[in-house]
Amino acid sequence: MFGKRGNGGAGEGGAKVMERPAPTPAAPVAATGLRAPAPAAPVAADPRPASPAPAAGGNAVRERGASFYETKTQVFAALIDTIDLSQLARLDAESAREEIRDIVNDIIAIKNFAMTIAEQEDLLADICNDVLGYGPLEPLLARDDIADIMVNGARQTFIEVAGKVLETNVRFRDNQQLLNICQRIVSQVGRRVDETSPICDARLPDGSRVNVIAPPLAIDGAVLTIRKFKKDKLTLDQLVKFGAISPQGATILEIIGRVRCNIVISGGTGSGKTTLLNCLTHYIDKDERIITCEDSAELQLQQPHVVRLETRPPNIEGEGEVTMRDLVKNCLRMRPERIIVGEVRGPEVFDLLQAMNTGHDGSMGTIHSNSPRECLNRIESMIAMGGFTLPARTVKEIIVGSIDVIIQAARLRDGSRRITHITEVMGMEGDVITTQDLFVYDILGEDANGMLVGKHRSTGIGRPAFWDRARYYNEEQRLAKALDEADVTKRI
Fold first, then answer.
1. In the chain, where does the domain assigned CATH 3.30.450.370 lie?
2. Per-residue model confidence as pLDDT tens digits over 322-343
3. What are the pLDDT digits (tens) for 141-185?
4. Contact 151, 143 (CB under 8 A)
5. Longest dimension (CA), the chain
6. Less Cβ around it within 10 Å: N or C end of the chain?
7. For 385-436, what is each residue's pLDDT tens digit?
8. Positive/negative CA dihedral, 229, 233, 238, 239
9. What is the SS3 string spanning the chain?
10. How would you class 479 by CB atoms within 10 Å of its CB: exposed for 0-12, middle for 13-18, buried for 19 or more?
């Protein structure tokens, strides 16, 4: 199936490898490229499929010496000279992996490398990951308990597990291999990262967010940051189980999503804004036309009528850029019933507010800020950044007429994530926007393990401003019950 390939085949991490002289084994590698002849005393190969080494104490791989990487380089070079990668690309992943394993086993046997079964399994897994996947990152991407992967050059990789940042033993051969893997990731979504365009946002096929900053801006080698998405999508019920919100608070959020309130989710980096936005979209009716606008497509809506739009960076000549504002303005002409902006960062906030205020009830977006009040101030600042010459009071009136609810998410110092406020935007008093908290999270102290202990509670508001909207959707009884059960003052 695999014949000798010509020049320019893809090499380790996606780099092009020029034609090398054939390796000098005890017996020549077959020209057909499938297998080398079996030697008299081959090194035994474990027949089990390769799998990532289990992590211990946050470490993703076993400790490896320089001899391991030297052997890997030699085996990889022989593999690339043996197979036709264009033919390999036509196979499904499992078949391609099996072919690579067979050839690598033969190369190890022919070149008579002294390796233990565990080292040989590690070598097979590494080479398969380099050819078919994302190299040393594959074991980390396979783990569902990791929230973030942070690669600081070829020699340092950190992960976040359960809110804590841990260093791993994952290493790249050199900075070029790391950059090649970064280029492979971003090229899948039609983007590029190189010296002329050293900053890039992209995504993995599962929606995980990727940011790359490459030399010369990154001095010690490319810096790769991946915000991983869990394979099993979180729901509000699971957020209740994790303590991010109380059952009554989850009911209120569900009602807010159902009754088409305009929602802004506010929070700092890593606080769970996008996760919460995904949870709320679960309660959108299946017959609604939803249009999402994102820098890199992360939202994973389950409704059948969803249109996903994604921004585009400028090309190498500096032309062809499509900004978030372009997308939001265009989607107004696409007959949306709900508009969802993955992250509001600039002047597009004005177009989103206009959409919320002109018949697109139930629209949503996320904003980086640390409190509901700061969220309102940031919206005003972003409108001013867009060059709109509107009086300050007019801007505030647009905000009040557009946003119904601000949901504040926070990542606490112990690594836990909590929904700390559900806040209504009420109106204006003079030149000040007035708000009222429906639901808040109070921190009560710490337990013996240093974890923060707190409680969600209702603030005692009997009828929120969206009460009439809840009645229109026949949700007022559930809303009243949730607020009553969460009002701790009635139990004192």
1. 140-227
2. 888 899 889 888 999 999 998 8
3. 888 889 899 999 999 999 998 878 899 988 888 888 898 888 888
4. no
5. 91
6. C
7. 888 888 889 999 999 999 999 999 999 888 889 999 999 999 999 889 999 9
8. positive
9. CCCCCCCCEECHHHCEECCCCCCCCCCCCCCCCCCCCCCCCCCCCCCCCCCCCCCECCECCCCCCHHHHHHHHHHHHHHHHHCCHHHHCCCCHHHHHHHHHHHHHHHHHHHCCCCCHHHHHHHHHHHHHHHHCCHHHHHHHCCCCEEEEEEECCCCEEEEECCEEEECCCCCCCHHHHHHHHHHHHHCCCCCCCCCCCEEEEECCCCCEEEEECCCCCCCCCEEEEECCCCCCCCHHHHHHHCCCCHHHHHHHHHHHHCCCCEEEEECCCCCHHHHHHHHHCCCCCCCCEEEEECCCCCCCCCCCEEEEECECCCCCCCCCECHHHHHHHHCCCCCCEEEECCCCCCHHHHHHHHHCCCCCCCEEEEECCCHHHHHHHHHHHHHHCCCCCCHHHHHHHHHHHCCEEEEEEECCCCCEEEEEEEEEEEEECCEEEEEEEEEEEEEEECCCCCEEEEEEECCCCCCCCHHHHHHCCCHHHHHHHHHHHCHHHHC
10. buried
Compute the residue count for the chain.
492
Give the amino acid at 162.
Answer: A
Distance separating alpha carbons of residues 142 and 166, to the nearest angstrom: 17
CA dist 472 to 197, 393, 402, 476, Å? Answer: 51, 31, 19, 8
Domain 236-491 superfamily per CATH? P-loop containing nucleotide triphosphate hydrolases (3.40.50.300)
Quote the tokens at residue 136. 């040393």
Outline which parts of the chain fall under CATH 3.40.50.300. 236-491
CB 264 within 8 A of CB 375: yes
* Rounded Cα distance, 230 and 147, in Å: 8
Does 56 score more than 80 pLDDT?
no
Task: Pull the structure tokens for residue 84.
Answer: 């036709």
Q: Report the Cα–Cα distance between both ends of the chain, in Å, rounded.
A: 77
Q: How far apart are CA 213 and CA 186, in angstroms?
A: 12
- How far apart CA 370 and CA 411 sit, in angstroms, is 10
Distance CA 268, CA 258 (A): 26
Q: Which CATH number fits domain 140-227: 3.30.450.370, 3.30.200.20, 3.40.190.10, 3.40.50.2300?
A: 3.30.450.370
Other C-beta atoms lying within 10 Å of the C-beta of residue 44: 10
Do the Cβ atoms of 434 and 426 come closer than 8 Å? yes
Is omega for the bond preceding 139 within 30 degrees of 0, making it cis?
no
Q: Is the dihedral of CA 74, 194, 198, 190 positive or negative?
A: negative
What's at 257, amino acid-wise? G
Contacting residues for 198 by C-beta, under 8 A, at least 6 apart: 213, 214, 215, 216, 217, 218
